[in-house]
Amino acid sequence: MPVTDVTSLIDFDSLLDDEERLIRSTVRDFVDDKVRPHIAEWFEAGTSPRELAPELGRLGLLGMHLTGYGCTGSSAVAYGLACLELEAGDSGLRSLVSVQGSLAMYSIWKYGSEEQKQEWLPRMAAGEAIGCFGLTEPDFGSNPAGMRTRAERDGDDWVLTGNKMWITNGSAADIATVWARTEDGIRGFLVPRGTAGFTTSDVHRKLSLRASTTSELTLDGVRLPSSAMLPQARGLSGPLGCLNEARFGIVFGAMGAARDCLDATLAYAGARTQFDRPIAGFQLTQAKLADMSVELSKGLLLALHLGRLKDAGRLRPEQVSVGKLNNVREAMEIARTCRTILGGAGITLDYPVLRHANNLESVLTYEGTSEVHQLAIGQALTGISAYR
């Protein structure tokens, strides 16, 4: 009998505890009920439904790996499994949750004052307030140290001027964590929606992450009180620490997209007949399916291992780079190979594979390009930085 779950090939479930399996099943049911019936339409229309945020909040998925302030304090593995199931629905959905919890909320939770935490985190955990993370600039992506956005003192206030680009949740956000250069180095600031001089504009004509809001942030003399600064973040270690949290979710999430492609392709190959037999019965098709299932299995095991390390407090940044580099790269290859099995049907939104493939092109780039992660791994191996 054929498998009903491709992860059963390595008995992946046996490696999870009861709580982890419950969280995974709960998120999978949510995606099946609330996302799958509509995702093709959202992707085609280029819309990102904000009304999902309160539902994600009720499930405890927003900032779920944080503690206190309405957050559920789940394990790293549980958070990773949630990311996997969300991205099996669509990378845009996982991006919304990841940016909300691992970037916007985490920056406040890790570096904010108690007043900032009390003001924002409970509402963000409930999905009542949306956050974004303003680090990347039009001319400075992989090199955030070159950012031009500046924050200058004016009496007791700060005045911010600059632009941020490729910001997920940007125009939907009620609060933005914006990183800017000051006389004392790079610092983080909380910029509420509606602040004078703070505007957003969405990126259109996207071919990837279409069911996700991507924006440019413009800060034109934005005046903020001194209480808007994140007091515990100094230098690039602040934003880079947040990025490492988000990259961890991608390690799991990319495997969700890959699994969804493989599930859809197995079902199609078993039903599609050519030359009087299902195409699943041809050797070339089975070779592709076998290779993809092996890479999926390896990626799942790598993600789980890194999750266990994170829960033990022993996960290093270069290890996250190993996970993101491998799992996104293999997920892209799985999506493309699945498309070849689906033939012409694979280019339509009737099947998820090309949607996932297009989304993964963005996932490959954000939170550190594949080249940046190769160099991070190279530096760990050699002790030599190749960035300069």
Automatic annotation (TrEMBL):
Record-annotated Acyl-CoA dehydrogenase/oxidase N-terminal domain positions: 18-128
The keyword Ribosomal protein is assigned to this record: no
GO biological process, one term: fatty-acyl-CoA biosynthetic process
Acyl-CoA dehydrogenase/oxidase C-terminal domain ranges (all copies): 234-381
One Pfam family here: Acyl-CoA_dh_N
Annotated ranges, domain Acyl-CoA oxidase/dehydrogenase middle: 132-222
Keyword annotations of the record: FAD, Flavoprotein, Oxidoreductase, Transit peptide
Sample GO molecular function, one term: glutaryl-CoA dehydrogenase activity
Cofactor: FAD
Segments passing through the bilayer: none
Matches recorded under SUPFAM superfamilies: Acyl-CoA dehydrogenase C-terminal domain-like (SSF47203), Acyl-CoA dehydrogenase NM domain-like (SSF56645)
Family affiliation: Belongs to the acyl-CoA dehydrogenase family.
Protein's UniProt name: Acyl-CoA dehydrogenase family protein
Organism whose genome encodes this protein: Streptantibioticus silvisoli
